[in-house]
Every structure is written in structure tokens, then in C-alpha cells.
Amino acid sequence: MSDPVAIADRLAAIRERVARAAVRVGRRPEDIAVVGVAKRVPAPRVVAAVRAGLCDVAESYAQEARDKLPQIRAMLEEVDCNPPRLHFIGQLQRNKARVVAKDFDVVHTVDRESLGAELDRRAGAAARRLEVLLQVDLSGEAGKGGADRARLRELLVASHAWSQLRVIGLMAIPAPRDDPEASRPAFAELRGLRDGLVGHAGAEHLIELSMGMSHDFEVAVEEGATIVRIGTAIFGAR
Fold first, then answer.
1. pLDDT digits over 194-226, tens only?
2. Third-level CATH fold of 4-235
3. Is the predicted pLDDT of residue 169 greater than 80, yes or no?
4. What is the pLDDT of residues 64-83, one digit of tens each?
5. Residue 1: closest CA among 56, 73, 50, 49
6. Residue 50 burial (CB < 10 Å; 0-12/13-18/19+)?
7. What one-character DSSP code corresponds to residue 148?
8. Of 35, 90, 82, whose CA–CA distance to 57 is shortest?
9. Cα–Cα distance between 90 and 44 in angstroms, integer?
10. What percent of the chain has pLDDT over 90?
């Protein structure tokens, strides 16, 4: 359903569930960002969510974003609404780094030194600074991307050379589970990895944990998520 009222209601319900999960473990709800995942979501539905108060929007495909973002910006200008902060959460090849560096504010999927270096170069050429998260492979699933746990410190050290990028946290996509509770160990592991890196070179701003999606975000919040990535639970079926 694309009715703006329905989208606003779903967004409000997600925020309430995030707040309840945070309170259960003694956290502040305002410390958790809800990012609306808009891949394959038409521009009018994204605009409806932004007008309802969604401050962060994510895309997964660089080509789709390049085509859709100008529509979203134009529609928001018509109603005098501020644009959202833009997150890129899909696997990223170096040949798409220019598009992402130009259009996005936060990149969640930096998992190798060569990609970070290319994003840094492209951001510099566009006179922009980006926040990035290091994606960690917790599941071993082919096609999901992510750096090996053992390489995280090495990647952080390499990030010192990225003058246009600031590493702000870690991101992971656990293996899909029917039971949200089954993802809890992976979320706890990502938090432990982040905490274990604090104090090491490159970890000066390592605060964020991007984890949890529509089916398991409450468990992720309980385990320390600072960013949850919600798609269908906000926008409806794609």
C-alpha cells in the first residue's frame, strides 16, 4: 500500500517498537536511527515517508539511485521539505564509487582497502566528505560481502590514508533466520568486535552499529544497534 497515511502510520509504529526495545535494555530511543531502505520503492512512496518524518533513506543499487534521487529531490522541493540523509547499503564495486561518493552521505559497505581508497578519491574529486562503516562478514554467505573479522584492524589502519572518509562504525547482515532470536548471537558478536577495536588506530569515531532489519530490528536494538535498516515494514511490499 502506497497511501501516505499508511506509510506514516507504519513509520510511527516502527519508532514505537524501537523505543520499547531500547527502554527494555536501558537505552535511549533517540540514540537509534531508523533508516528507510528504499530499494525498488517508487519515488512518491519515499517522499511520503520523508514528509512523515523519516530523516534517513537508504538505497542498495547505484544505478537505481542515480535515476531516482533527482525525482525525490524535485518532489521534496515542491513541498518545501528538507531532503533526508542518504545511506548506501548495497554491495559496491569500485566502478560505481563515483556515483555513490557524489550522491550519498553514509556508505555502510566498505569491506576492502581498494574500495575505501577509490571512494576517498572520488569524494575528494567531488569536494565531499563521507561517513563510512566497515562491513563485516559474520555469516560466510557468498554474495553478501564483508571483511573477514581478522582483517578489521588492518582495514582500520588503512583508513588513516582516506582523508575524505571518516570510519564511524561496523555493519553486518547476519544469515537469514525465521526466528529473530536466532540473530542475537551475530548482533552481540558485532557489538563485541566494535568494542574490541575501540582505542586502536583508526577507531577514533567507531561508534555506530548498523544491524537489524524489518524482521529482527528489536533484537538488534537490544544488542546495541545504533542504526536499523527497515524496508517493507515502512514502505510496504515492493
1. 999 998 888 899 999 999 999 999 999 999 999
2. TIM Barrel (3.20.20)
3. yes
4. 999 999 999 999 999 999 99
5. 49
6. buried
7. -
8. 35
9. 22
10. 88
Indicate if the pLDDT at residue 114 is higher than 70: yes
Report the alpha-carbon distance of residue 231 to residue 238 in Å, rounded: 9
Residue position matching grid coordinates 564511524? 168
Q: How many CA atoms lie less than 13 Å away from 144 in the CB half-sphere?
A: 17
Sign of the Cα pseudo-torsion (91, 96, 99, 101, in order): positive
**Facing residues of 35 across strands?**
56, 229
Is pLDDT of 142 > 80? no
Q: Which amino acid is at 146?
A: G
Contacts of 192 (CB under 8 A, 6+ apart): none
Confidence of residue 1 (pLDDT cuts 50, 70, 90): very low
- Other beta carbons within 10 angstroms of residue 96's beta carbon come to 21
Segments making up each domain of the chain, as ranges: 4-235
Question: Sign (positive/negative) of CA torsion 182, 186, 191, 196?
Answer: positive
Look up residue 142 and give its DSSP letter: T
Q: DSSP string spanning 149-197?
A: GGGHHHHHHHGGG-TTEEEEEEE--PPP-SSGGGGHHHHHHHHHHHHHH
DSSP per residue over 72-129, as a string? HHHHHHHTT-PPPEEEE-S---GGGHHHHHHH-SEEEEE-SHHHHHHHHHHHHHTT--
CA distances to 3, 91, 110 from 113, in Å: 43, 14, 8
